[in-house]
Amino acid sequence: MRILVVSQHCWPEPFNVLETCEMLRRAGHDVTVLTGLPNYPQGEIAEEYRNHKNRQQCKNGVKIVRSWLYPRGVDLSGFGKIQRIVNYVSFALAASSANLLKDQNFDVVLCVQYSPVLMAIPALKHARRRGVPCIIYVYDLWPEDMLTGGMTKSGMPYRIMKRISKRIYGQADAIAATSPDFEKYFLDNLEMRNFDYYYLPQYAEQMFDEVEAACFPRKDDVVNITFAGNVGGNQAIDGVVRAAAILRDRADVMIHIVGSGSRHEECKRLSKELNIENIVFHGRQPLEAMPEYYAKADALLLPFAKSKSGSLVTAYTIPRKFQSYLAAGKPIICSADGSVSELVERNAIGYACAAEDPNALASAISRFADASVGERAEMGERAKALYDEEFSREQFIDRMNEMLRLVTE
Questions:
Q1: Whole-number Å distance between alpha carbons of 144 and 187
Q2: CB contact at 8 A, 136 and 121
Q3: Per-residue pLDDT tens for 212-232?
Q4: Which letter, b or e, does each residue of 143-182 get, where b requires 16 or more Cβ atoms within 10 Å of its Cβ?
Q5: What are 254-271's pLDDT values in tens digits?
Q6: CA 20 to 30 Å from 350, out of 39, 185, 376, 408?
Q7: Rounded alpha-carbon distances, angstroms, from residue 11 to 4, 41, 93, 394
Q8: Using an 8 Å Cβ cutoff, are 7 and 109 in contact?
């Protein structure tokens, strides 16, 4: 099958679009990616892509065509907000040009849709020109994702984007999504009807199937609880610090924070203010080091912040971190509302509690620490089995191929 994949972001930016395309290529498909000039997260066009350089590339058999766009910038105050909007609109317009893919034919167009939903516009246009179906694979839910940036549902920008989002999603021949609860949003919030929906969950990086070696000192009588990832507002690590303070008298529990982000220094200061010694900040580590940190964890921690603006994003989203935790075969302690907590509890792969509730999180960690070694091992085994059955790379590509077959019949 000849597949055109459209996404504003792709390699060398830190998104897994190319990885998915390589899997499709290995499955026997001819794959072309239409994407933008790399500018994430640095905010400016990478030097090697300026002045019309590297507009067409090939990576592991996947053809890459790059459209011009205006760089996103990094400042979101004043002019920075305008620059971000121009970045979004510039790709939607420039990537829609018929000249970019002149004389190329495809059997289907697949939009891998992060933020913003506007990146689906070129996918729809190229599909209509060729009279082939278009699938929008939703990673970021729009316009709901706007609320996490401080906008409100009553504001004009949100209301305008709600109408635009409904129109864009409504023009797709099929919608796929990384969470089963996204369908509720399309039905209840966007009031969409009569659309084909496919649940296509994410998979973990392959390295998490092979966790080995130690990265920090471990004592057999200490239960290590590890968080690995971005330390930002959405992760609510300050609540983890406060839970550690509640557990200060438990000498058998140690919490590890591996990563950095906008709230990293604030959380470190909070731990000092609370005078606690049962939490360690390891800082940012390379991705390839993560399996080693996972290996020596007795359980992996998945915290999510509560929505401050009524957004359903945190409740409906299943973060890719969840799949990497499962692939490592580790129990999960989840402090979140919605889909991911339900998965933890329903499959008995750890303990779940409400988001941003330090007392409930401390209780969940205590319950895990008090469980027998055998009980913890069984949770980890169930986690690995769940990954193999529902979230593995093999399951992903099988579901993707089946969806492509059904949509193009």
A1: 14
A2: no
A3: 544 555 566 889 999 988 887
A4: bbbbbbeebeeeeeebeebbebbbebbebbbbbbbbbebb
A5: 999 998 887 889 999 999
A6: 185
A7: 16, 12, 21, 22
A8: no
